[in-house]
Amino acid sequence: MQIRYGYRIEIVCDRPTTLVTMLDIHPSRRHDLLEPDEMRVTALLDTGASLPVERHFDSFGNICRRMVVPAGGVRLEASGLIYDCGRPDVTAPDARQLSPAEIPAELMGFLLGSRYCETDKLMDTAWSLFGHLQPGWGRVQAIVDFVHNHLTFGYAFARSTRTAAEAYEERIGVCRDFAHLAVAFCRCLNIPARYCNGYLGDIGVPPNPAPMDFNAWCEVWLDGRWYTIDARHHQPRIGRVVIARGRDATDLPMLNSFGSHVLQRFEVVTEEVGAGARQISASPASPRLVPGDRGGHIAA
User: Fold this and answer.
1) What interhelical angle do 119-130 and 137-150 show, nearest 10?
2) Would you say 67 and 30 are in contact if contact means Cβ atoms under 8 Å apart?
3) What is the pLDDT of residues 66-91, one digit of tens each?
């Protein structure tokens, strides 16, 4: 299938402000692009000056762009078309869990605690809940089932500082909280896990009437490869398009400004081409967007 994706974001600032974005499709999917998706950057107050943008990779291999936003603010836009196999997330009931001695050295960091995934606080809980289960896919599925049922989802519950341990205690959250808690539990049980964000449209599922947003999920390393798991949606989904991967949301701020700014406009689209496309609809800057159900982490 072919998926049309894109965004339109406006931020306002009262003085020149350095901004780093993480909005480009991940390098692992760029070979699937059917047309260019270069970011368009426009000053909200037209001064006639160009806005240089520097492109670089972070330590996890994600694509970043750095710019200096002029006083008044900036509009960021992109639209792309990508090929997707059209198959749901892979499930592997027989996938085995590797011991720490078997895990590739470069992945050992995904066993450690991080800013939003406090393995030290959740270690005893994880082993009491899942330690009796056979290591492997079944244990991971039990974690996904538990997180999905333990947390109550709600846009009003969004809080950019909530950690996995706090989500466990509060029993509420948005998609990033579901992902953080699943990641933390997996790491506690010696399963490498990483946090992901990207596009996930309503393909193969009933349409969600809420404005489109980015999404957060996670990946686990079993039997020598990464598998996608999603405690929020709790079912294999079609058409994920990853933007970035890291230890947790700290590593993946979609907008990271080094100075104050106001999010004035935030629009996202993800749709299968020729399948009754959803139109871009504006969603006001609100707590839901920091992050929203579909996962964007916007850091000030």
Assistant:
1) 110
2) no
3) 999 999 999 999 999 999 999 999 99
